[in-house]
Amino acid sequence: MLLSRDEAEVRLAYRIHWASALDLPVPPEGMLYQAHAAIRPGEFDTALLRVQSGEQGEPFLRFAEQQDYWINYLRETHAGRFDALEHLYRTDLTRLTDEFEQRNISLDNPEYEKRIREFEASFKAQQTMLIRELTNAEGLEHH
After folding, report:
1. Is 0.70 topped by the overall pTM?
2. What is the domain partition of the chain in residue ranges?
3. What is the mean pLDDT of the chain?
4. Residue 83 CB neighbours (<10 A)
5. Spatial distance between the Cα atoms of 4 and 25, rounded to a whole number of angstroms
């Protein structure tokens, strides 16, 4: 007799079984209808491998760098790294502004605006690199 699977019970079974290994939020105490999940032999292990492999590589990094909650977590946890990057960016902008003012070139000058855009693009690229670096480091800590 083949039992039909209750998908809610399957999700709950996975959540309880892998709560520790995947650092999931606090799992429920248990399941009343575990039989309805109809978990097959080896299914938990296969699922864990899929999750862990999905947490590596370019697609995951692109996903992570777009998640506000993740970026906020990294900014709180590694505030010094982000502060140092921002300080460098602001110092470079101040230096650029001073350079143009000393040369009596208007800050409305297209060259100044071009350089500002270049600084902004560089700063965003450096932030992305930092987010990726920290995301990889966090992943290594949990495996």
Report:
1. no
2. 7-54, 61-141
3. 81
4. 11
5. 28
